[in-house]
Write a structure and sequence with these properties.
The chain has about 325 residues and is mainly α. The chain has one domain. Helices cover about 55% and strands about 5% of the residues. The chain has a two-stranded antiparallel ribbon with strand order 1-3. A two-stranded antiparallel ribbon has the order 2-4. Helix 1 packs across helix 9. It starts with about 30 loop residues before the first strand and ends in a 7-residue tail after the last strand. The relative contact order is 0.15. The model has no long low-confidence stretch (mean pLDDT about 90). Bound molecules: zinc ion (ZN) (2 copies).
Length: about 325
Amino acid sequence: MATNFANYDVRTRDPSRDVEDLLIEKPPLGVRIGDPSATSRRREHLFYAAVKQGGAVAAIAYLFFFPTGWVEWTGFALFYVLNILSMSIGYHRYFTHRAFETSRPMRYVFAAWAQFGVYGSLLRWVADHRRHHAMSDKPGDIHSPYFDGHGRALVGRKGLKHAHLAWAYDDCMTDMEVYGKGVVDDPAILWAHKTRYLWFAVSVLVLPALWGFALGGAEAVIGTVMIAGFLRVALALHAIAAVNSFGHKFGSKRFEGQGEARNNWFLGLVTLGEGWHNNHHRHPRAANAGMAWYELDLSYWVLRAMQAVGLVWNVRRVKL
Ligand SMILES: [Zn+2]
Ligand SMILES: [Zn+2]
């Protein structure tokens, strides 16, 4: 039997109380504990981790032994920006929150672009993120620094680790019957889900190789794949993961009642706007997360530019 913790307040919980272990028998609403699909998710994320983290280590080693120059680092900057935008615009502001509208062909472009960012299946991500908003920092949240997937209290580094990336390796899956409505039958999302490994290869290998070859010739290909492929995808992963971990712990709160989501200027900078996370939790359907003039939100300005040329429309803006 599932329990609805929607009114639970993290500030009232007592981390020392074992009674929260009872939640294992009464899982939070929308969470399937021990679901067999957890094994395939774990394998998938292990594969990503091996390629990204292993590749990043190889890239750092490469830097010690081989010279790199403007070809590799312009590639790094370009693909880092595209990688973060794939999350902020693709997975997040469009497919999850529908903060703007677009044409049918562009839905497929956004879907492929989202998977280019390699944050796992778009299908699962949308449902997982709906759950995150429905249960922010309460038992049932998928990646809170205050609770594990079972709903048991977490503190300190253990909580940060869970919220950062470890949640993808537990045995608690989002119930698609609760959070998957309009997602499981969306053709663009299903297509992206099925072809996601192709976009992973395009992102990490094909485009960086082409960039290196076009600008620096054959001898620049390996270095560009290392820096603009492997190193970039690993850093972009940690930047976005930090919104779920550090972004629910460190920073300021403009709005109360949004779980523990914070506005964090450093995360705002490295995630091109996603770090204005307290604003976002208060106004999840807004296309802008930065709301004050000093809250830089490049993702929103890219959407404005796309609107200006007619690629997207009804871009919802919330002003303070
Ligand atoms: Zn959040
Ligand atoms: Zn969101």
